[in-house]
Amino acid sequence: MGFPLPGEVGERAREILAGRLAPVPARDAATVVLLRDDPLEAYLLRRKATMAFAAGAYVFPGGSVDPRDADHTVAWAGPPPAAWGEVFRADENTARGLVCAAVRETFEESGVLLAGPDGDTVVTDTTGPDWEADRLALIARALSFAEFLDRRGLVLRSDLLKAWAHWITPVVEPRRFDTRFFVAALPAGQRTRDVGGEASGVAWMRPSAALAAARAGAAHLLPPTFRTLAEMAAFESAGDVFACPRSITTVLPEPAEVDGQMVLMIPETGKAAE
Predict the structure, then answer these.
(1) Main-chain dihedrals φ then ψ at residue 47, nearest 5 degrees
(2) Cβ atoms 99, 30 nearer than 8 A
(3) Is 19 among the domain residues?
(4) 139-164 burial code (b ≥16 CB/10 A, e <16)
(5) Domain tally, the chain
(6) Residue 87 belongs to domain spanning
(7) 3-class state of residue 168 by DSSP
(8) Alpha-carbon 21 to chain mean position
(9) CB 3.0–4.6 Å: which of 74, 102, 177, 207 could bond 233 by disulfide?
(10) Whether 167 contacts 191, CB under 8 Å
(11) 82 secondary structure, DSSP code
(12) For every one of its 274 residues, what pLDDT tens digit does the chain have, with 9 covering 90 and above?
């Protein structure tokens, strides 16, 4: 399936394909599809129109890996970094950073924290002013995630995440991310907050409704978000999503010239494991 690359983007694609322009390196990033039940809904943020990347688009919580996310002092419960590395075909240090970034960014952008006092419990309320102060300190990078967890006597709960997909931003983009997608269910007792920051609005939406809005031109969804929501629309509950076997395939949309026009070709994403 090809998407037109008009104007400057198309010219940039031609320069890259001709070897006259080098692509920008992709930065490691993590994205979390946060779900809740009755009915199944996904949490989406609408990025501000002034953002340099994906301006105005509806996205899942997520962002770049902070170098401190790979800190070995991050308190951890659940599958270890090495296991996540096997799933995403990444080295252990990269995997540690990705999982930590997924949990940290989810808290920063939604107020939801996938952590607890131990490996069997999870915090139930993160809405107080002290939590908000910590969230803002994390966003400002004045506080590392390891320090945040240690201060509160918490451990990261990697078992509350499920690996879902791996997308790399096309070489034609001036800002590129090597993004691993995770899925998580809203923990009992917690609720999301309209936290602002990079978002101009937030919403819980049924995947099918978000897709319909995009098709009608009422919502802008990037291809990875659209594809992921289409996959979520096949399930009835977060439990069904977690129970589904998943094989991770790296998806890198590629520019191509078709009938004299530059287009972006998007391959199939990961599917259920055999």
Answers:
(1) -70, 145
(2) yes
(3) yes
(4) beeebbbbbbbeeeebbbbbebbbbb
(5) 1
(6) 2-265
(7) strand
(8) 28
(9) 207
(10) no
(11) H
(12) 567 888 888 899 999 999 999 999 999 999 999 999 999 999 999 876 554 455 578 999 999 999 999 999 999 999 999 999 999 999 999 999 999 999 999 999 999 999 999 999 999 999 899 999 999 999 999 999 999 999 999 999 999 999 999 999 999 999 999 999 999 999 999 999 876 556 667 889 999 999 999 999 988 898 899 999 999 999 999 999 999 999 999 999 999 988 888 998 988 654 433 2
**CATH assignment of the domain containing 243:** 3.90.79.10
Does 148 map to a domain? yes
Q: List beta partners, residue 41.
A: 36
Kindly state the tokens that stand for 251. Answer: 């998806």
Task: Identify which of 136, 182, 195, 149 has the alpha carbon closest to the alpha carbon of residue 42.
Answer: 182
Q: Quick check: is 29 in a domain?
A: yes
H helix intervals, the chain: 7-17, 81-88, 92-110, 129-139, 145-152, 207-215, 223-232, 238-243
Residue in the structure block whose two tokens are 């509160």: 152
